[in-house]
Amino acid sequence: xxxxxxxxxxxxxxxxxxxxKALESTRQEFHSLHTGRASVALVENIKVDxxxxxxxxxxxxxxxxxxxxxxSIQPWDVSALSAIxxxxxxSGLGLTPNNDGKVIRIKMPELTQERRNELDKLIRKIAEEGxxxxxxxxxxxxxxxxxxxxxxxxxxxxxxxxxxxxxxLTDKYIKLIDESLQKKELEIKQV
Length: 191
What we know:
By secondary structure, this protein is an alpha+beta fold. It folds into 2 domains: 8-31 and 112-189, Topoisomerase I, Chain A, domain 4; 40-107, Gyrase A, domain 2, CATH 3.30.1360. The protein has helices at residues 8-31, 40-43, 81-89, 113-150, 156-189; strands at residues 47-50, 53-56, 61-67, 70-75, 97-99, 104-107. The strands form 2 sheets. It has a 4-stranded antiparallel sheet, covered by helices on one side. The chain has a two-stranded antiparallel ribbon with strand order 1-2. Helix 1 (8-31) packs antiparallel against helix 4 (113-150), helix 1 packs parallel to helix 5 and helix 4 runs antiparallel to helix 5. The longest helix is centred in the last third of the chain and has 38 residues, at 113-150.
């Protein structure tokens, strides 16, 4: 929620900061989707029960991608191997971990056409949620500007100018989400 500031610049800055966070959140959701290509982002936030403490995988192991189809996970504590393997298996990502006693390797399965279509629908939904979030931020920022105008803190011309700048920010961040969506769609369509 936008805190009512006493100047339009503060409202604009807050709106831009929140729009940037919405964009980053959308991009992060895109990165966490399995597209047939190995990615550290795919597994780094899997929650592992490590000695009764839920820990993100990236806090327990070195995660690398030795090639485009393999993710390699080398725990700092070898006793965590089975817990990591179990967490990956139950993560719902459809990945099969192979444990050699020191390192866990995950081979990325090929995407079926059906899975590509599901992913396409999912990324479009994620992008739309990002756009809606940005439009909500625009709405709240414009409301704050209108309150400043109503209470005579700023004049109508400054209000209109500030609302125009907020619309320009909205257009900019929606365009960035659309570009991220196109990039992810291309990644999914690659065989």
